[in-house]
C-alpha cells in the first residue's frame, strides 16, 4: 500500500503528527510518501490542486485545512482534524483577526474538504465532538495521537539537585506564553522553571523570557526533549486549548505527573487526580500550588507518574493507532473499488 501524505510545513504539532504517522505506517509495511509544501500554501491551498500525485497511490491523507485541494479522481481521500478552530477561541486565546481567518477562511476550506473526503479522522474525542457539532457531521473516526515508546521512557534514576518544572510549546496566547511571568512569580524560587519553545522558536522567544528566572530551550531533537522530560519533577501545560495534549502524553510516557488547565485536548489525556491535576483555565496560582504539592510529596508524584506511564502505554500506544489506520485505509480503498 502506498499512502500519499502531502502536508504544509507549519512549525507546529501538525508537522510532528505527519512525521510520526509516516514512521508508524512504515513500521506496518506501508509506503508513506511524505511531500512538504511551504507555509504560504495555507492561505491559498487551491494552488495544490495542480500538484501531480505520486504514481500508484492507494490513499491520499491530508489535513482538513487543505485536503480538498489534494483530492484526486478514483483515489480515496482521508482528512484529519487536529483541532476545531471555527467558532471558538475568541477572545480568550485568539484575536479578532484570527477569529475571522479561522471562521470564514479556514472554515470554508474545511467545509470543502468534508465534501470530498472518503473518511474524516479526529485525533481526540474532544476534537471529534467539536467538529461534529460545528459542521453537523457524524461518523468521524477517532484515532488518538500516539508516541514512540522506545524514546519517551521513564528515567533510569532520579536526578539530583533542585526540583524542576518543565513547560513545552510554541510561543502563542493559545499555549499560554503570556501567563509564564505570572506563573514564575507564583512558583517557589527554589524550583527551576524550564521552558522549551516549539518548532517556531525564534531568538525573540528567548529574549521575552530573559531575566525572568526561566531557563529557555529551543531547537531540540526529540531525544534531547525526552531527556528534559526525564530530568523534570513535574510537567506543566498552560495551554488554553488543544486538539490533543501531546506534551501531556510525552510527559506521562516518561512517568512524570502533569499539571494543566482543564480544557479540551488535555482532559482527553490527563486523568485528574490519577495521572496529574487539572485546574480551571487561567488559574496559574492553582497550577503553581499543585506543583508545590507534588514536589513536596514525591510519593504521590511517583504514583501519578507510574499511572501516567501505564495509561500512555495502554491507551495511546503505537500498536493501537497502527491497527486503526490500517483498518481505515482498507475500508476506504474497498469502497473506492466498490467492495463492501
TrEMBL record:
Keywords: Transferase. Residues 37-143 form the Glycosyltransferase subfamily 4-like N-terminal domain. The keyword Iron does not apply. One of its GO terms (biological process) is lipopolysaccharide biosynthetic process. The keyword Transferase applies. Residues 159-309 form the Glycosyl transferase family domain. GO terms for molecular function: glycosyltransferase activity. CDD domains: GT4_PimA-like. It comes from the Bacteria. This is Glycosyl transferase family 1.
Amino acid at each position: 500500500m502506498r499512502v500519499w501524505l502531502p502536508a504544509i510545513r507549519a512549525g507546529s504539532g501538525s508537522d510532528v503528527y505527519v512525521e510520526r504517522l509516516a514512521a508508524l505506517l512504515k513500521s506496518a509495511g506501508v509506503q508513506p510518501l511524505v511531500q512538504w509544501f511551504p507555509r504560504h500554501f495555507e492561505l491559498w491551498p487551491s494552488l495544490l490542486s495542480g500538484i501531480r500525485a505520486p504514481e500508484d497511490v492507494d490513499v491520499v491523507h491530508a489535513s482538513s485545512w487543505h485536503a480538498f485541494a489534494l483530492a484526486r479522481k478514483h483515489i480515496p481521500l482521508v482528512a484529519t482534524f487536529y483541532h476545531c478552530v471555527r467558532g471558538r477561541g475568541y477572545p480568550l486565546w485568539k484575536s479578532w483577526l484570527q477569529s475571522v481567518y479561522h471562521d470564514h477562511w479556514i472554515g470554508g476550506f474545511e467545509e470543502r474538504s468534508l465534501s470530498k473526503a472518503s473518511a474524516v479522522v479526529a485525533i481526540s474525542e474532544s476534537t471529534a465532538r467539536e467538529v461534529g457539532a460545528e459542521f453537523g457531521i457524524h461518523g468521524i473516526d477517532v484515532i488518538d495521537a500516539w508516541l514512540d515508546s522506545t524514546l519517551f521512557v521513564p528515567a533510569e534514576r532520579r536526578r539530583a539537585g533542585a526540583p524542576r518544572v518543565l513547560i513545552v510549546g510554541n510561543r502563542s496566547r493559545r499555549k499560554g506564553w503570556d501567563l509564564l511571568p505570572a506563573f514564575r512569580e507564583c512558583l517557589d524560587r527554589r524550583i527551576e522553571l524550564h521552558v522549551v519553545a516549539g518548532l517556531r522558536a525564534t531568538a525573540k522567544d528567548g529574549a521575552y523570557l530573559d531575566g525572568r528566572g526561566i531557563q529557555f530551550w529551543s531547537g531540540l531533537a526529540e531525544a534531547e526533549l525526552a531527556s528534559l522530560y526525564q530530568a523534570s519533577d513535574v510537567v506543566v501545560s498552560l495551554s488554553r486549548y488543544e486538539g490533543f495534549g501531546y506534551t501531556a502524553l510525552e510527559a506521562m510516557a516518561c512517568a512524570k505527573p502533569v499539571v494543566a488547565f482543564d480544557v479540551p485536548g488535555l482532559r482527553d489525556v490527563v486523568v485528574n487526580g490519577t495521572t496529574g491535576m487539572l485546574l480551571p483555565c487561567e488559574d496559574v496560582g492553582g497550577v503553581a500550588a499543585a506543583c508545590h504539592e507534588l514536589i513536596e510529596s514525591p510519593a504521590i508524584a511517583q504514583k501519578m507518574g507510574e499511572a501516567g506511564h501505564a495509561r500512555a502505554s495502554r491507551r495511546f500506544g503505537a500498536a493501537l493507532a497502527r491497527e486503526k489506520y490500517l483498518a481505515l485505509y482498507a475500508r476506504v480503498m474497498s469502497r473506492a473499488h466498490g467492495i463492501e
